[in-house]
């Protein structure tokens, strides 16, 4: 499977972001990519106005997703990204939804489970957490699991997805800058890949707020492609034989002694 990672800085105007996405989709399709992974929160961003996540949120069938979906009608490109979607009957809450588009339709929509309430940031002020483990998808013959940004810090989700059969983990992100944050990003991506013998494909937003550093890590923890801090379109080939080799020489999924992780539906004290 040929994957593309589209890294860019999300702007305030959603129309500009839409045109950027459409351009990245066209270039990915022309390069023969099967899959394009874009960052988290791609509809609109303003670091001076955190409430923009509420004001700019759109429904799954709204104009932003609809126009991106239309661009996948006559080609084989699957596109993955995150954006904020209003929660019905809660004017002050949105979901952070990872959307998968293929064949002109929404193939999957995963509501982010782990909200970024850390390092003096509170995503939960505006975002409602999801309540379901994301589904596995089949893309170009690979079993694919979905994660979003802060999910990387929780090994249970990656292990659950790979226990269910995932060979590739996709992680659209907007990883905030800060002390040691680039180090955290590198360690967590490589750890999730190595401990599950799976590819991890993480597309990050760049710009004044976030680190960029989109990367692909192979099933033995090797970073096989990586962007820097500027806008980029990165390509990488994923090889199913590499997954099979890793799981043969390092059978951690077979050797584990713990049961399959289950989602906790209620917080404990």
UniProtKB/TrEMBL annotation:
List residues of the CN hydrolase domain: 1-240
Top-level division of the source organism's lineage: Bacteria
Q: Which Pfam families match?
A: CN_hydrolase (PF00795)
By sequence similarity, the record places it as follows:
Belongs to the carbon-nitrogen hydrolase superfamily. NIT1/NIT2 family.
This chain belongs to the protein called Deaminated glutathione amidase
**What organism is listed for this UniProt entry?**
Alcaligenes endophyticus
